[in-house]
Design brief:
By secondary structure, the chain is mainly α. It is 69% helix and 2% strand. It is built from 23 helices and two strands.
Amino acid sequence: AWVRAGIELLRDEGIPMNPYSAMLYDHLAWLYMHKIGGQDDNAHLFYKQMLGLLMHEVLGGEGDRETLVAFAEAPATREELLEDEGVNRLWTECGAQGFDIVEGYFEVYKRTESVPPAVRQIVGRPDTAEALHKVQVYARATRLREELQLDPQKMIELVDQYGPFDWRTAFPHAIYWATIGLEKLDELERRTLGTLEQFGVEVPTPDPVKEAYKADETLYEFRRVTLRRMIYASIQSLVTHGRLLFDTKGRFMLEAGSDYRFADAALPLYEQVIEAHGIRFQMGTEDAYRNFLRRGVTEFYLMGDVTKSHDYFNRLKEKFPDEVKGRSFDAYRRGRLKDYTEDMTTGEVRNIVAAYLNRALFNLGCNADEKALVLEEEAKALVKQWNLEAEPNLRGTVRFDRLREAVVTDLLTGRGPVRFPGEVVGNLIERLKEQTEDVVVQRVLQSLDAAKEGLLEPEEVEEQWQMETR
């Protein structure tokens, strides 16, 4: 309740009263990026759930471009909507039952008891489907603008600039409000400069002695950089852990991890800050840019996208030649992968590999075969690299097949730390049955079938695979 209250205070009261305050836009974007989108607050999963449910209700889904275009083109007023003959007929028919279908659309959507049975029958008829759809688009677009203060046209512009956002997640909202803040800051600067010129007043400049580090900065530069950092940090967070999965009702199911679709969108944002702003802001941004490219080289390689890994290596070589120091792609990539894993214990590596495998199985259960394969290959690559270094460093090795068998068994018996929705588990079992040449998977499935038939008790199945795993 307090997080929501903070958002509403800034969005619905603070910003309308102070539309040119960059600080307010920054604070609002920060609430979305850090408090909801981040992972520092113990209740962050709950915040993500609540935001997802709200946005799913308003948007009817993730808010893809086609949906946003329909919202942008929706009638601006109730009167304009009712000019449509089909909508007017539906509204009149529902009104005869004492129900306003335009004002009460979300009651119909949520199937509340306030909707009369006769109205339920009316909106369920095939001949009212088209009119009901127009009412739905109007109701959602109106709520988006009036309750959430989001302009669908601006949302479309951001999708076109950065990529296919899922607006049920927090980071697109942080990007939205930081972008609006930048636009308002540009307006404020133009207005301020015009006023100063009108009255013949010189533009304030930094003191060359006391503030030499600000010598090349323009008016409002600190606020402008802060908002631009908010945008690139949100894009960076989208890449790192911005992929969330929701079911068809908007319920948050799983934090699925990285979303590499937005990686390339982050690159020009770093360069923009480095090139457009003074030395005071360059160092921190350069460090963030360097780290982002480092990670891209390693993670794109682990994902199996060697071409993209090469691209990031070449960009790193161009922008930060000292980082590469004359090494070839393979030499640098091996060094980065070693750094990636050298400080881990065997148990930590097993946990990471198990996490990758759980994500792979979840994606397989959702029929996302390509993503499932990438995650499993990523797990294999990590095990391979770890085991290569294990013996000379007197570390324990990780047995991939046994660990994978344990993860599958944990998941299908419901005994492990991860719980998938029943429909995902059911579909996963069917998909695993298709892998007839996978001895490990088939052995697990046979053991589970035997347990169901009473040939083995569940405890015996668990004991069997634990002994094999050990």
